[in-house]
# Entry
Amino acid sequence: NAGVTQTPKFQVLKTGQSMTLQCAQDMNHEYMSWYRQDPGMGLRLIHYSVGAGITDQGEVPNGYNVSRSTTEDFPLRLLSAAPSQTSVYFCASSQGQGRNTIYFGEGSWLTVV
Amino acid sequence: QKEVEQDPGPLSVPEGAIVSLNCTYSNSAFQYFMWYRQYSRKGPELLMYTYSSGNKEDGRFTAQVDKSSKYISLFIRDSQPSDSATYLCAALDQGGATNKLIFGTGTLLAVQP
# Structure
């Protein structure tokens, strides 16, 4: 019972590099989202998707790109990494929006030097 | 001002103590509130959710919402070392086209054996 799977778990990037954080869920959930978690800031929504082919911006979308070509996968791309993007990233999914239980992945720890 | 405010702690209590975790929120339109528990190096997991004002009990955990004061609380009775985690409150923002969860910053709880 995999749930929400994120890779990689840890990554160190140099400023200016690009990379993709992978996220996959096996629960056939329509709603998927990416959050970042920083000390003193809590969880902040980066991008979300309400279904395949549909994405939208959250609270802190700058510097990140997403796509949703399948129900299962929702990758997050860092276009040109900056030290301000050092954070823990969580992918999440739910059956619908809001009141439905949100299931989080185990997180991806990203350091940009 | 953040829409959901939470005391970051840390909070340290002896085993068996009653723990009170609290959040305030600013938007009187919020009606659904959740508590998530996050163990170290893990993703958050839903603990409880409540609708509007009132109490909801689940084993040793009680969630309480006071809409008149915009105050949400989580009580843990007979606290155990296994309850040591970060507790995140969240409110559901249904004001836009898509529902979004607004998280507090989290309170770190340590239950000492």
Q: What stands out?
A: Residues 4 and 42 of chain A are 20 Å apart (CA to CA). Chain A has a mean pLDDT of 93. The first strand of chain A starts at residue 4 and ends at 7. Chain A touches chain B at residues 4, 40-45, 48, 50, 56, 58, 90, 92, 97-99, 101-107 (CB under 8 Å).
